[in-house]
Design a protein that fits this description.
Elements (H helix, E strand, L loop, with lengths): L2 H33 L4 H9 L1 E5 L4 E5 H27 L5 H25 L17 H10 L6 H25 L6 H19 L5 H18 L5 H7 L10 H17 L10 H17 L2 H25 L12 H28 L11 H10 L4 H11 L5 H27 L15
Antiparallel strand pairs: 1-2
Helix pairs in contact: 1-5, 1-12, 3-6, 3-9, 3-12, 4-6, 4-13, 5-6, 7-8, 8-9, 10-11, 13-14, 13-16, 14-16, 15-16
Amino acid sequence: MTKAQLLSPFQKFVQLQSFSGILLLSTTIIALIWANSAFSESYHALWSYELGFESESFSVTKPLLLWVNDGLMAIFFFLIGLEIKREFLIGELNSTKKVMFPLIGALGGIALPVILYIVLNQNPETLKGWGIPMATDIAFSLAIINVLGSRVPLSLKIFLTAFAIVDDLGAVLVIAIFYSSNLDFALIAAAGGLLLLVYFLSYKKIYSEILIMVVGFVVWLLFLKAGLHPTLAGVLMAFAVPVRQKISTKEFAIKLENIVSDIKKSRVLETPVLSSQQLELVDDLEDWAKKYQSPLQHFEHKLHDWVAYLIIPIFALANAGITISGEINLETALVLNLAICLVIGKSLGISLVIFGAKKIRLIEVPEDITSKQIIGVSFLAGIGFTMAIFIAGLAFSNSPENVVNSAKIGILIGSFISAVIGFIILRYNTEKNTFSHNPIKK
């Protein structure tokens, strides 16, 4: 297999995320315009509309906004879980050497924004928002980096993707530990038992998509009722999806040759309709193709379009509609704090930690990545949008609406400034590679 063939799936992933980022920006603008137009009441009425189901012993009723944030986003987190598992098993995080570069960058990009937020925060009521500036929005950041084309090496895009996934993992842990409350440990234990069951079945190579979806829904409900954020069910269920195929390439190739040979020998009808023998052979081919596919890769492939083109844009439409008027009482300190953490915290946290780790030879930076590109991509990491807004909703779920709106405005401002600075640095990158060990010829 050639290098181009190996990189092709990642390049397709980058293109998908890039278009998703453009769609995300479009729905964000639509939400802001709608929420500040003459139809703003309809915007807020839509997302406040109560939906659910009830029985004598059980009920789940939520505003439409929470169905998006708790329900649809569980599918987004399921996809995140699949990506994390893939990267750690067979991707850019599957060895100590590979993982150190993005891991060190991600740790710096997580730690400094959190520390900076706590230091700058002056209001005890907003202290609980410290987790907001942690994660990077991979769709937005890859959309910007992809616009730059050949000015940015593929290794830099891989680095951005890898540390964004580590960021997401950190955000998931923070949500699980710090943004869940009033826990019902009996329900959590029941959910844990179901998770252990599907993990055991996966270990024994017993796997069913239907079983994963049914158990996933039950675990989601249990987490919801237990006080643990239900989107975590998506991540944990993803770890139960096997990455290995049921049959080897050699075995599949032999079966494929036999089926093709039988199709050639079968009686050919002079109509578009297949004979019963041909139908059986086609069914046989589909069965073997399913066995040959990686279940994890198959799930990822099916979900990517739904998440990128539907779920994330709906999330943006539901959450980015901030009504800005003279009547709104903004928490200016919170807005500035979040903007500073995303712009300064992320960029300094990532770049300084990487430069320091490189100097003491803790990590090895690819030779085609320059120091200026590291700085540029560290600013792009300040685009927090999706996960930042999600965590803001959790952190300030019991706070006045103006606090939540202030957090969202701070995220939007910080993300926008980070995007512009990162783009400019990478666009006008003319610096020679300072990480290369080769002497520069004059």
